[in-house]
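Narrative progress, year one. The postdoctoral researcher (J.K.) led the effort to move from monomer predictions toward full complexes, under supervision of the PI. The following entry was the first complex the group processed end to end, covering 676 residues in total.
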Amino acid sequence: MNFEEYAAKSLVLDPLGIPTLRGTLCTTAAEAAAVAKSFGPCVVKAQVPIGKRGKAGGIRLADTPEEARKAAEQILGMSIGGFTVERLLVEEQADITREFYAAVLHDLVARRPLILFSTEGGMDIEEIAAAKPAAIRHLLLDIDGRPNAADITLMLKGLDLGPAEAHIAQILDRLYAAYRTNDAELLEINPLALLGDGRVVALDCKFVLDDAAVYRQPELAKGGAAGSMTALEKRGAEAGLKLIQLDGNVGVLANGAGLTMTTMDVIRHYGGKPANFLEIGGEAYTKSEIAFDLVLSNPGVKSLVINFCGAFARTDVMAEGVVRAWHKLAPRVPVFFSIHGTGEEEAVALVRHELGIEPYDFMEDAIQAAVKAAQ
Amino acid sequence: MIVRKKDRVVVLGITGKQGTFWSEKMIAYGTNVVAGVNPKRSGETHVGVPTFATTGEAVAKAGGDVAVMFIPPAMAKDAAVSAAQAGIKLLVVLTEHIPAQDVMAMHAAAAKHGTRIVGPNTAGLVTPGECFVGIMPAFVPSVFKPGRIGVISRSGSLGTLICLNLTRAGLGQSAFIGIGGDPMLGTTTRSALEALDRDANTNAVVLVGEIGGVTEEDAATYAKKMTKPIVAFIAGAAAPAGKKMGHAGAIVTGNAGSYASKRQALEASGVAVVDTPSQIAAAVSAGLKASQAGEKLAASQ
């Protein structure tokens, strides 16, 4: 779950005492002008849960309340990466001396938390990694402990940070605490700025909450941003199903993430385009009735592949759900089946007798037929 | 991580609906299930095996080499740490959606106590004709049959399909190793490959990967040293970047973890990468023929 900058700063950084600039959330140009009047020169920033806001024109400097009003008028309603800007963060302008990068995230190979720090702030970490890999300092941690002060000192050694080093060390320690208490998948401050008056403050903040930990962070999760879901994807989410709508015309209903991705790949292999990703793996295999409805509700669908390969998921239970939905919806697009694994005999018999359709022996043949029918 | 009939298996969460269903299946197939664990059902017998309050007690009284977890995400960390402390050597974590910071704590405990974790989010391990641990349809004869092909898969559903295709082509399996769909796995593709390379019953390996992470790229460096033929299929070629494809691990950002990167790394190591699952059996047969011809040539010289 992604968070907008303002939510990340107020919910994650502020409680741990990581310094930020004075700022106020606004939803109208008049509010932005009023805040600028009390702050003086300020920055007007679009609040969307996605990066590259500056490049998209979503961040503007304003030296007067009138400029803040104009900037707000231009930014509100703007579309950035599929999100419409509805909120602005108006912050005081800062006298920036240096910009750094700081983050805590999972090291997926070491399977441990990792602190990253770089004196090349303001750029994407991927860009820094490509251009100046030596400029990124790494510190791997034990999940059960706290960062050791000596290790942080060693990490920052030779970076010529001067009096800012002590502030930065403290911020990194607190950033790790914030990562742990908030079940972060990623907690990033970019840039972390050294100001003319010697303060070190977070100018921006990116926080991603681990989706798997939402159940134990209910208050925090209320501050998360809504995803940019289509109406159909929202219906899927409400039914507890992960649906991704794509621009193709061959609908996909398969069990398990691996088999579903493979079905999409084979559609592409035969020159077709998949219309969706939809997973009914794990316990969700009992939801094939609503899943069938969802896939058919996609207006782009011209044909449908149903590809079941039962391990944990029982194909007979999934086929029963499809048959129930079929009788209610009477689909007008051609549907092609491949059914194997747990419950196969019952499932094949059901599809044959109830729908009068003969499943294919190989999924590739079912998919090829569906691709042809969609053309 | 190739399970054997002699391995003593403890089922954590044995009394639940899935724990009961799959324990019965495992026992019927030949798995040596010696105990179950449920804190509230100590001293009882369930599906014919004794139940204990803790894994430590189960191991002390009934023995235990392998443990398999039918435990919901919120309780998974504590169950895994207890199993590691109890001296379980191989811990099969079926649970999906465990918070990532809990997964790291599980791996830390496993490293401390010398436990190998398979998973999280694995469908388990199958040694066809002998035993299985997890939620795979080992008992469906159209899917699994004993043979000499080792299969490694991140996905249970796709792994099932691949084994079905091999069986239909007359190629039985020596072992199925489900490594799991999570981003931080206890057993990587590389360590599974090493196990199958050492296994005297395995003549060839089928590697079923998917986009996301670097486990296939890492395995490719080992694959280069192997003489047994390897055939790979990587799922997710058509997946859009930046979207999680169901498995938490299956996400591509930039070039890292992309289909192209995996395919390139594997092909550079001499692995035959195929475009669709139905091409796997023929590629395995071709690989076996080539390696037999190579052996004959080596023997005649």
